[in-house]
Amino acid sequence: MNRLLGTLALAAALCSGGTAHAGLVNFDNPGLVDIDSNGVATYGEAGYVITGPAASFLPIDGTMVGGFDATSFTFGLLGGGSFGLKSLDVAPYDLGFGPGTLALVGLVGSTQVASRNVDLAGGGSLSFDSNWANLTSVSFSATGGFALDNIATVPEPGSFMLAGAGLLLLAAVRRRR
Fold first, then answer.
1. 163 torsion bin: left (phi>0), alpha (psi -120 to 50), beta (else)
2. Are 81 and 156 contacting, i.e. CB atoms less than 8 angstroms apart?
3. In sequence order, what DSSP letters do the residues of 125-161 get, joined into one string?
4. Where would you tag: which of 2, 64, 133, 136 has the fewest CB atoms within 10 A of its CB?
5. What average pLDDT score do residues 29-34 get?
6. What is the distance between the alpha carbons of residues 138 and 126, in angstroms, rounded to a whole number?
7. What is the DSSP letter of 25?
């Protein structure tokens, strides 16, 4: 009976944290963009979601294109939670009015905790430091067309802590025997 209770407690502890959500969003097989009656568009891939006004982004040619207008869109975990932004590729996308500048803002809730401006004339692969960890979303806005690809994220620490707590619980149950 104790063994069964210990196993059930471990399973509950490990499952309560959800998945770690480490991954790569690469837009290689884009799904549909869902637009609600208020004009808010939503696109999901690999456990993440991009949300914003319908005219702010569109998956094109294996990338996520933005900068159609001055409005921003956000990137976050599907269902909420925290994640870390590790890297992404950005390139200019010709919309007929020059490359401009891309503004990235890291948010925890509605509080800005990190920001970065990128000259879209150059583009390239961007890496992010520890200021971009434990975010709830990243906001993208630009003064010109841009394409995003290969958004790499890292697991939120909470999942690792829950898994560790589950392992400690298992060790305690085994030790009592």
1. alpha
2. yes
3. EEE--GGGSSBSEEEEEESS-EEEEEEEEE--HHHHH
4. 2
5. 92
6. 14
7. E
Amino acid at residue number 165:
A
Q: What are phi and psi of 173, to 5 degrees?
A: -65, -45
Q: Does the pLDDT value for residue 1 go beyond 60?
A: no
Cβ contacts of 81 within 8 Å, gap of 6 or more: 18, 21, 136, 156, 158
| C-alpha to C-alpha distance for 152 and 143, rounded to whole angstroms | 24
Measured distance CA(72)–CA(82) in Å, rounded: 20
Q: Distance between CA 78 and CA 50 in Å, rounded?
A: 9
Which CATH code fits 21-155?
A: 2.60.120
- What pTM did the predictor assign? 0.77
Q: Where are the domains of the chain?
A: 1-20+157-177, 21-155
Q: CA 74 to CA 32: how far, in whole Å? A: 17
Report d(CA 105, CA 159) in Å as an integer: 24
